[in-house]
Design a protein that fits this description.
The complex is a heterodimer of chains A (506) and B (504).
Chain A (H helix, E strand, L loop, with lengths): L1 H4 L9 E2 L13 H21 L2 H19 L8 H17 L3 E3 L21 E6 L5 E7 L4 E9 L8 H20 L3 E12 L3 H7 L9 H15 L3 E12 L11 H8 L3 H6 L8 E4 L2 H12 L1 H12 L15 E4 L4 E3 L2 E10 L4 E2 L5 H4 L7 E10 L2 H20 L8 H18 L4 E12 L5 H14 L3 E4 L4 H8 L14 H6 L1
Antiparallel strand pairs in A: 1-12, 2-9, 3-4, 4-5, 5-7, 5-8, 6-7, 6-13, 9-10, 10-11, 11-14, 11-15, 13-14
Chain B lengths: L30 E4 H4 L17 E5 L10 E3 L2 H6 L7 E5 L6 H14 L3 E7 L5 H6 L3 E4 L13 H9 L2 H27 L5 H17 L6 H10 L2 H7 L5 H20 L22 E4 L8 H27 L8 E5 L3 H6 L3 H8 L9 E7 L10 H12 L3 E4 L4 H10 L4 H9 L6 E2 L4 E2 L7 E5 L6 E5 L3 H4 L16 H13 L1
Parallel strand pairs in B: 4-9, 4-10, 5-7, 5-8, 6-7, 8-9
Antiparallel strand pairs in B: 2-3, 2-14, 10-13, 11-12, 13-14
Helix pairs in contact in B: 5-6, 5-11, 6-7, 6-10, 6-11, 6-13, 7-8, 7-9, 8-10, 13-14
The chains are: A alpha+beta (506), B alpha/beta (504).
């Protein structure tokens, strides 16, 4: 039997070649940098001609300062201007008190609600039914002109699955991503994996209600003890996927209402959700409004999370509405985010894994860890429109070729040549039909005990290093980063203060 | 600000102090890649997806890339009710000494908690006596000088038939008659080491019918023998003696000899199944047929004892089900355990078919689960290929499998009955490693794979679990002690213990 005789398993497929965009220019200056340098040089010459040496020196110093702000990048690729801007924005918020959130009955907010703060404050939840008779939700975010929907997944894990099957599942994920490029007006998608310590409620909920009246005493004793010991140190893992669509009318008319979007998406969403199953997501269902409210509330408030689970264990559900899912109070400090009884730190990706990785790369980051009460890893994807993708890819190739053909030091550096190879590989894959995607990673760790925060930080740092991801803490913006980590369908790439085009040229 | 105007949050949130608006938005750096590369950051590498119903077994065994701990619940009746398996039956395979009976005991106790009574149809070691006693059940001891089970006893069916009418009544009586003839044939097969001829089976069939019409009470083997010797007309017709009594006597000579041997032969326990039943099975509590008095080496007697217990047990289950259908009795749930399946199979000569017939549940019966236990698939390899196929059918048609540590040779044999991934195969064989030698105690430690089982349903990836024993269960879980020496836990004490635990 071939299944047994060939004991050698298939090799895991290798992936990599992730491109972090950086434009060409004079040396490491980029186009804008080069332009500033050029302008500075011209102005200094004019200054020396008109106003004298001192003026020229002054202009040179100013140009130098501006260039320094733009040039000196730290390990995360952020230049001085960005870091200073970060600090200033935070200081301003701290002074103005806007980094605190006071909701609930005693707050100045209307209706005594606990809506989501910050970027998600405008979101509204509506529930609809899709063409497969499943209820689904639409989160409408008018500020970004998008609606998003959420699915729940129950990943079974990859424990005893052969590598050949795993490779197939990974390839299927690529297929799911490809599907995004075909979807009309889909601007972003995300996958979130949340791990929590298991309180044992679920286990008890599964067993205790089925106890027979006639059960012998020793059976009751044995089962009760079993349940207790089995719950210790257990953990639960839940997965979510979101898809975000633009509400802009392609013909240039007014934006579509959630009702109109729902009507259009009702037949498309089941297929997107269904296509997620063979990627190893397990059973995929659209999340209902109640479920989503529970997820978000549990993310902000651990005590509420315990109450919600206990209610489920008793076979009930605490009805929640969208205006209640936010925290009652939050304080976004520089280094951490305090929300109700939780303290969270969120990391955002600075650099993807270099070189090649296999599908197990994220395994350790995704696994539950005893030092971190709640951990959420979110992968965000933004598909490129097919036509623009082809252009972009060609542009990358020509940029890389420029660097190789116009070297600063005689011979092209090995790095420049590698860059060209990689760009060429991407172009080949794109030509063969693969879609192009921007992606990023957001990791949130939540603890309830301030003393555990340091351990949690260290754990996440080392886990992400193990995954070869370079992550940076979202200093001064933890509240927004926390939202990026939730399965809300927010697309981080669309919240960039500078247009992407400009960012690449700096 | 006028109170009539409703404030709405801005794109960055509620403005002002205490509004929680976003000041700095930390946009993560985006990288770019084609879909065939980006999928390499696979988010589903870790997960826990266990059936949320069943008897508590123990913890999930961490395998794969990352350790995830969770509690495993598994038993055939619960999983059938939840729709996880198609048939409420479980087949347990595993080498000796690795904890098969511990797993089954765990599932029995859990099932008792859910109101499903464990029904141990033949306890040879004994493995389950202490447990059934602890659950407040009935232990029927069989053996020379201890207790007898009449193989012709279908009194439970007669009583039920008396209360039923019409088609149900006929069905009960037909089932009972079929059972008796099958069992008689099976016992003859064991005695002779060859199957009875179809003529002999016809003779027995007719003789039994005559016996029913004549005999007032419950007939025993001697009565059957007498009927055959009396040579009534119906029986003579089956013998096709064409009016020649000598031919009849010649035809039934071998049968008579066998029936006499059933009474006397040590191979069938000196008439253990020919005396009136000493203790009848109670239907409202766990039951254990303790046949541990059968020496281990006497496979024939053990096989016979098992078959008699199966026939009785399943007969009672079917009858109870029909009574419940008619609304005459409450619905009863059982978990029937058939241990050491290999013993009757080894007899051969059509025994597999008889096993199947005697332990078959009526298709309409529900609330009854089955657990069948044997060592390895090699047990199911019999001289006759047709029998082997039938035996493998037991495994293939089971709703779920519980695979304990198994050697490499088994993997090939299992491949036909269940789809195991290479990783699962490696896992099962890795569990067979022997325990390390402990210099301090001078003994071998328990094998690391002991208590590990892989629950397999169809094509889905298996669930590896380690059986965890609680303190309460340890009292009846030491298979090396004679059941006499084990402390018995009275039900009232256990109730108090349960209350204590719940308060803790």
């Amino acid at each position: 039997m071939t299944a047994v005789e060939d004991r050698v398993d298939e090799e895991p497929t290798k992936h990599g070649n992730f491109f972090v965009p950086r434009a060409a220019g004079i040396g490491s200056l980029g186009w804008v940098g080069s332009a500033i340098a050029a302008v500075g040089a011209i102005v200094s010459i004019l200054a020396v001609a008109t106003a004298g040496l001192v003026a020229m020196l002054f202009v040179l110093v100013v140009t130098g300062a501006v260039l320094a702000l733009l040039l000196f990048r730290d390990q995360h690729g952020r230049n001085l201007a960005q870091r200073i801007g970060n600090r200033l924005a935070y200081r301003h918020a701290a002074r103005a008190g806007t980094n605190r959130y006071a909701a609930g009955p005693l707050s100045p907010l209307p209706f005594g609600a606990c809506t989501l703060p910050g970027l998600a404050a405008q979101t509204e939840l509506t529930e609809w039914v899709d063409s497969w008779e499943q209820p689904f939700v639409l989160l409408d975010t008018p500020s970004t002109g998008t609606v998003s929907t959420v699915w729940s997944a129950d990943p079974p894990g990859s424990q005893l699955i052969d590598q050949s099957d795993l490779n197939q599942m990974v390839a299927n994920l690529g297929g799911w991503l490809d599907g995004h490029t075909q979807e009309d007006r889909l601007v972003g998608a995300s996958i979130t994996v949340e791990t929590r310590g298991d309180s044992g409620h679920r286990l008890r909920a599964a067993v205790e209600p089925r106890r027979a009246v006639s059960a012998p005493g020793i059976a009751v004793a044995a089962v009760s003890e079993s349940l207790r010991t089995m719950s210790v140190g257990g953990s639960s893992i839940r997965g979510y996927a979101t898809a975000t669509f633009s509400t802009d009318d392609p013909d240039g008319g007014r934006r579509q209402t959630p009702a109109e979007m729902a009507a259009e998406l009702a037949s498309r969403l089941p297929l997107i959700g269904d296509a997620l199953r063979p990627t190893g997501a397990g059973v995929v269902r659209p999340t209902t409004g109640q479920e989503l409210c529970e997820v978000i509330r549990s993310a902000y408030d651990q005590e509420a999370a315990a109450l919600i689970e206990e209610a489920h264990a008793d076979g009930e559900a605490i009805p929640l509405s969208w205006s209640q899912v936010g925290p009652i109070s939050h304080h976004a400090r520089w280094r951490e985010y305090q929300h109700d009884d939780g303290l969270s730190v969120t990391w955002v990706m600075s650099r993807p894994p270099k070189g090649t990785i296999t599908a197990s790369a994220l395994a350790r980051v995704l696994s539950p860890h005893p030092a971190v009460a709640v951990k959420r890893v979110t992968l965000h994807y933004r598909p490129w429109d097919l036509g623009q993708a082809a252009e972009r890819v060609e542009h990358d190739v020509s940029n890389a070729a420029f660097a190789v053909n116009n070297p600063t030091r005689g011979r092209p550096s090995a790095q420049a040549r590698k860059q060209l190879d990689r760009a060429q590989k991407t172009a080949d894959e794109e030509a063969e039909g693969a879609g192009l995607h921007n992606f990023t990673v957001v990791i949130t760790a939540t603890v309830t005990d301030p003393k555990k925060l340091r351990d949690a930080r260290a754990v996440i740092k080392s886990l992400s290093k193990g995954a070869r991801l370079l992550m940076r803490e979202a200093h001064g913006g933890h509240d927004s980063a926390f939202l990026f980590g939730l399965p809300l369908g927010l697309v981080p790439g669309r919240h960039a203060p500078t247009p992407e085009m400009l960012k690449e040229r700096l | 600000m006028s109170a009539s105007r409703v404030r709405r949050p801005g794109p960055r949130g509620w403005p002002g102090r205490g509004g929680g608006s976003a000041s700095y938005i930390p946009v993560p750096t985006e990288a770019r890649g084609t879909s065939v590369q980006v999928c390499g950051l696979w988010p589903w590498a870790v997960g826990v997806n266990l059936p949320p119903i069943g008897a508590p077994i123990g913890r999930l065994i961490p395998t794969g890339w990352a350790p995830v701990s969770a509690g495993v619940l598994a038993d055939p009746v619960s999983w059938f009710e939840a729709g996880i398996i198609r048939v409420p039956s479980e087949f347990v395979l595993g080498l000796n000494g690795y904890g098969k009976s511990t797993l089954v005991r765990k599932q029995c106790v859990g099932s008792a908690y859910f109101g499903v009574n464990p029904l141990i149809l033949g306890d040879l070691k004994p493995d389950y006596v202490a447990m059934i006693r602890a659950l407040g059940g009935q232990v029927i001891t069989l053996g020379r000088g201890r207790g007898y089970l009449n193989y012709l006893d279908v009194s439970y069916a007669r009583k039920a038939a008396g209360r039923l009418t019409g088609a149900a009544r006929d069905a009960v009586l037909a089932d009972a008659h079929g059972r008796r003839t099958q069992l008689a044939g099976a016992l003859l097969t064991i005695l002779r080491h060859s199957a009875p001829t179809d003529q002999e089976e016809a003779i027995i069939d007719r003789a039994l019918r005559v016996l029913d019409s004549r005999h007032g009470g419950v007939p025993v083997n001697r009565d059957l023998l007498q009927v055959i010797r009396d040579a009534p007309e119906d029986v003579r017709q089956a013998a096709i003696d064409r009016g020649n009594i000598r031919l009849y006597q010649q035809t039934t000579k071998a049968l008579e000899a066998s029936l006499v041997a059933m009474e006397d032969s040590p191979r069938l326990g000196h008439g253990m199944f020919c005396k009136p039943t000493t203790e009848h099975m109670l239907m409202d509590r766990p039951v254990n047929f303790d046949i541990s008095s059968v020496p281990e080496a006497e496979n024939d007697l053990a096989a016979a004892a098992l078959l008699v217990c199966w026939s009785y047990g399943f007969g009672v289950i079917n009858v109870a089900h029909m009574l419940a259908d008619a609304g005459l009795e409450p619905r009863r749930n059982w978990l029937a355990v058939q241990d050491e399946l290999w013993r009757p199979m080894r007899v051969g000569h059509g025994m597999v078919a008889r096993m199947d017939a005697l332990s078959r549940l009526d298709r309409s019966v529900y609330g009854v689960g089955q657990i069948r236990i044997t060592h390895t698939m090699s047990d199911l390899e019999l001289p006759d290929p047709a029998e082997t196929a039938m035996a493998r059918g037991f495994v293939e048609r089971s709703g779920m499998l519980a695979l304990g540590p198994l050697p490499w040779a088994e993997m090939v044999k299992l491949a036909g009955a269940v789809r195991l991934s290479k990783r699962e195969q490696r896992l099962l064989t890795s569990w067979t490693a022997p325990g390390a030698f402990d210099r301090r105690t001078g003994r071998r430690a328990a094998p690391p794979g002991q208590g590990n089982f892989l629950f397999k349903v169809g094509e889905q990836p298996g669930i590896p679990a380690h059986v965890d024993l609680t303190e309460v269960e340890e009292a009846f879980n030491d298979t090396n002690t004679l059941w006499d020496a084990v402390r018995r836990v009275a039900p009232e004490q256990a109730d108090a213990a349960a209350k204590e635990l719940r308060r803790a």
